[in-house]
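Researcher: We're teaching a course module on how sequence relates to structure. For the next exercise, students receive a sequence and then see the predicted structure as tokens, so they can try to spot secondary structure elements on their own. Here is the exercise chain.
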Amino acid sequence: MRTWLNVIVLSFSYVVIIWFNGLMDGWNAQARHDMINWEISHGQFWQEAYDPYDPFTIEDSHDKIPAGIDWNEIAPILITQATIYPDGRMQSVMMKGIDPDQSILEMPTSDLKADIEELPAIIGTRMATNNKLEIGDYITVRWRDANGTFDATEAQIVGIFKTNIPTLDFAQLWVPLDRLQAMLQMEDEASIIVAGNFKIGESTYEGWVFKDQASLLSEIEEIVKSKKVGASIMYIILLLLALLAIFDTQVLSVFRRQKEIGTYIALGMTRAEVVSLFTIEGAMHAIFATGVAAIYGIPLLAWQANKGYALTPGTDKYGLAIAERIFPEYSLYLIIGTVLIILIAATIVSYLPSRKIARMRPTDALKGKIQ
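Model: And here is the predicted structure for the students to work with:
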């Protein structure tokens, strides 16, 4: 019964640690994939005054698109603050102009080619839900141009897209780039330029700062790392429970098997060999637990990787690049690393009580006396 208790707790530790880390790795992989395909591609050029976390920089963060860049390899975006009035309500938004013909990002910008008199606009599903907007609805848009003059026009929602990237959705209004440039009196200007290949990032342009994929993805990776650190408390508690059970089992085993230990030594085994024997017996719990964990863990984790883990409603409002359903990823490094860590810990805990054997005298051990 003690053996099965140790094995069950250890196997549960295996499965939980691998599952949660796989879930975090799956989130990280999905977020990276979505951000690369929808927002950053192979990197971005930022106008030197642009700071996405400081709205006061928006008015000044625009400049001429550098000459000599192949427009088939970039997706310029012009950003300005605006106010919309859906059904008489007021909502502050970021109005962003993008080329309807761009093919760098997965955004359905082709909808902006709509041949209408009003300003065509596309929005995300969250923006549409929060403002009760549907395709075909009209809204009044007010903005301020480069000279500080306020102006307004009617816009029509020509498309609604679904994305996991909140920075493309929440309070975001997407319009044709050329129309927005004319409205703001900023001909041939942009705030950021999305690069369609890595070679573009090797060039330098005055007034523009290049941000590579690593820097643009660092925020989501730091969030995932912090989540893993927080979850490590649960791992430690589970592991300590299992290791405590192994420790108690080894102490009891050494106490009850003193005559057996004395017999081993009397027959010629060295104390180090007897200590190794008991240590290996304790470590076998971890090896046995690996097999038990594989019996129920492999089907469970495989099913989870196939079906995904559905998040609670409202998670998409956290402002993070996170899908409604996360599909865990279990790497070979994660599985082997978890098994080795638990095996080493179980071996160390098994060795500690076994050291008492080295201080036993064979005659006293054969008599069952405790040293």
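Model: If you want an answer key for the exercise: The chain has two domains: 2-35+218-367, 44-211. The first helix runs from residue 2 to 40.
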